From TrEMBL:
TM region positions: 25-47
Location relative to the cell: Periplasm
Organism name: Pararhizobium polonicum
Keyword check for rRNA-binding: no
Pfam families (alphabetical): SBP_bac_1
Source lineage: Bacteria, Pseudomonadati, Pseudomonadota, Alphaproteobacteria, Hyphomicrobiales
Protein name: Sugar ABC transporter
Keywords from the named record: Membrane, Periplasm, Signal, Transmembrane, Transmembrane helix, Transport
Family: Belongs to the bacterial solute-binding protein 1 family.
InterPro entries: Bact_solute-bd_prot1, SBP, TAT_signal
Principal subcellular localization: periplasm
GO cellular component annotations of the record: periplasmic space
């Protein structure tokens, strides 16, 4: 999950990769200096990456995600697994300090000196790093016919101007939590539409089974954009047009979706007024204390819900894809960190080899087991070991299949502030159409 939970320019500079370079890579060792060879990744994908001629030294910078080991341990394993590349790990702050992670990467990449060679990045930074010319396009190394091994939404989030500029690594997304026991009491099934959800939530409140029908995050912060992306997309709407150069936030699908959120507070009254000041934790706490029927949140909530020391709803919680509007489909806002290669790396082939290893089936499995971070490869959700050791994660494939990225634009930092302000004004005032139309005009000035 991105910092939203705990909060998180031109490519011409990479044009020195020649056609001969590409040919050498694609054809393997042919024409490359002695000692270089092509490596077929052990995941059986047939993706080819180039080996360094000697033990090349590269660096890897990432936010520090902690589990049963560290990313430094991953680097050590890679270093010991072959004799071509040595990786030095640069540990950045944890994702809860996303601003510091972002600033640290920007400062390094802007120097254009090749350090770090490989880096991990929040999905919302991908377009900006690519537009700045800091991220190496990866299309020649990871052809289109191999990208089907990843969730389509993650690949889309890793693509800028039809170029793959990041490689999927691990992810999170918004998901729908519900009380199994209350649902069973009311003889209802897990709601698939927002209207069904509102009806069941109101019934649970009326019966005294839940103080709150539906909890979500309406604070003027990044998480509000995530909630908006989900509900707007589930109504066949969008925040930006496909070309990223105009806003659709003032169009009917988006307006109707945000109106629904306003109505949960002021019409159906299934959500408390306080949601407008809540981000993830304030909305999580009433749910795990047994006061709510439904909730939108991230995957981190489930282990808390199952902890007797922190939860009053142990074994009473289910998780499903978020509802959608009639004629729409479920959408979950994509979070997580993906991989990039510095466009100015002086050890490009070594960087590609390490990047490929990090994103491989075997390494993603290890990260899932030891860090609890969900794979970007759908096949791993059927993996026997993950099913045994991380059963909740293994159940989330259907949730992640509907993962949708936030607006893809190099101006995202400005766009998100406009969205947070405009959507917040709409939810507070109830003047949804007017506020979202004004928001669209502001965004058009930013991206147009």
């Amino acid at each position: 999950m991105t910092d939203i939970k705990k909060p998180l320019g031109g490519a011409s500079s990479v044009g020195h990769v020649t056609m001969a370079d590409r040919r050498k890579f694609l054809l393997g060792a042919a024409g490359v200096a002695a000692g270089a060879a092509a490596l077929t990744v052990g995941s059986g994908l047939g993706i080819r990456t180039a080996r360094a001629q000697s033990r090349a030294e590269i660096s890897f910078a990432s936010a520090a995600f902690f589990g049963n080991e560290t990313f430094g341990d991953l680097c050590k394993t890679f270093n010991e697994s072959q004799d071509r590349v040595t990786v030095t790990y640069i540990e950045l702050p944890p994702p809860s300090s996303s601003t510091e992670v972002y600033q640290g990467l920007v400062q390094q990449l802007a120097r254009r000196n090749g350090t770090p060679d490989v880096f991990s990045q929040d999905v919302i930074w991908i377009a900006g790093f690519a537009a700045a010319g800091w991220a190496l396009p990866l299309d020649e190394y990871f052809p289109a016919d191999k990208r089907g091994d990843y969730f389509a939404g993650t690949v889309a989030a890793c693509t800028y101007q039809e170029k793959l500029t990041a490689l999927p690594w691990f992810l999170d997304s918004g998901m729908f939590y519900y009380r199994k026991d209350i649902l069973e009491k009311h003889g209802a099934k897990v709601p698939e539409t927002w209207d069904e959800m509102a009806t069941i939530a109101a019934a649970a409140q009326a019966a005294g089974d839940a103080k709150f029908g539906y909890l979500w995050q309406g604070k003027q912060a990044e998480v509000l954009v995530c909630d908006a992306v989900e509900i707007i997309t589930s109504n066949n709407g969008s925040i930006l047009a496909a070309d990223g150069k105009s806003s659709l936030i003032g169009d009917k699908p988006a307006v109707d979706a945000i109106q629904f959120l306003y109505d949960t507070i002021n019409k159906t009254k299934i959500s408390p007024q306080n949601v407008l000041s809540w981000d993830e934790e304030p909305s999580r706490q009433p749910f795990t204390s047994g006061e709510a029927m439904f909730m939108r949140n991230w995957s981190y909530v489930y282990p808390i819900a199952q902890d007797p020391k922190a939860s009053e709803v142990v074994d009473k919680v289910g998780v499903a894809p978020l509802p959608h509007f009639a004629g729409g489909k479920s959408a979950a806002c994509l979070g997580g960190y993906q991989l990039g290669v510095n466009a100015n790396s002086k050890q490009r082939e070594a960087a590609i080899e390490f990047l490929t290893w990090l994103s491989s089936t075997e390494t993603q499995q290890r990260i899932a087991l030891n860090f609890g971070l969900a794979p970007t490869r759908p096949a791993l959700f059927k993996d026997a070991k993950i099913k045994q050791e991380q059963p909740f994660m293994a159940s989330l494939e259907s949730v992640f299949t509907g993962a949708t990225g936030r607006p893809i634009t190099p101006e995202y930092a400005k766009v998100t502030l406009a969205l947070q302000s405009g959507i917040s004004k709409a939810l507070v005032s109830g003047n949804v159409q007017a506020e979202l139309s004004a928001c669209a005009e502001q965004i058009n000035k930013i991206v147009g």
